[in-house]
Amino acid sequence: MALLEIENLRKSFRTPDGRILPVVDVPGFRLNAGELVALSGPSGTGKTTFLHLIAGILAGDSGRITLDGQDMATLSEAGRDRHRARVIGYIFQTFNLLQGFTCLENVLLGMSFGPGADPVRARVLLNRVGLSDRLDYYPRQLSTGQQQRVAVARALANRPKLVLADEPTGNLDPANAAQALALIRELCAEEGSALLLVSHDPSVLAAFPRRESLAILNQASRKGVAL
User: What tens digit of pLDDT does each residue of 129-162 get?
Assistant: First the structure.
């Protein structure tokens, strides 16, 4: 049984001048448990919207997203939030760390939306990503690469079945990007988490045995729609 199945998923937005702008139109997509998949996603293919729909941050206009056996369309917004906290870890392109909280607190807060804060596991994860000496540092006191590692630790904190990564190396130099990618893959493998990673970087895409083009999957982008 697939961990994630998408059928005829569509999402549109209304523009300021009242037009309806189709952004996502994906007839089908499937991801199995533990599978590592890279999506190439140049500007205009609705990649962030696609990930937000999978995560339940946005609701689709039509179609079906079945995640870990649950049809997301049948859930309320609160229900989608609970399901996301249980099943998904999300690595955002801009990391989305809370600037008023330390590294350790950021991971613990991420845990609080799932089974509950576990200080021991939070410390183990931060040690695993090489930040055992930065637990009490604030994001502003860290390099970009170190902030990325905090975001990775937070995403894996609740042992998610699926990790979504939106251009996770986009803000890093090549050396740090390679290290971050290796770390994400290693932690997902250790936890048994599937990984769906969006990138436009050929070196990142080449590291995945299964690569898909979101521009090809997404019929909206082939109609000249941009996001």
Answer: 999 999 999 999 999 999 999 999 999 999 999 9
Question: Rg of the chain's alpha carbons, rounded to an integer?
Answer: 17
* 116 token code pair: 């509950």
Cβ-based neighbour number of residue 212 at 10 Å? 18
Residues 6+ apart with CB under 8 A from 67: 3, 4, 54, 56, 83, 87, 88, 162
For residue range 103-115, list pLDDT tens digits in order.
Answer: 999 999 999 887 7
Whole-angstrom Cα distance, residue 164 to residue 179? 18
Q: Is the model's pTM score more than 0.85?
A: yes
Closest CA to 6 of 42, 60, 43: 60
Kindly list the structural domains of the chain, giving each domain's residue range(s) and its CATH number in brackets, ordered by start.
4-222 (3.40.50.300)
CA 181 to chain CA centroid, nearest Å? 13
CA dihedral 144, 145, 151, 156 (to 10 degrees): 180
Q: Provide the pLDDT confidence category of residue 224 given band limits of 50, 70 and 90.
A: low
CA distance 171 to 133: 23
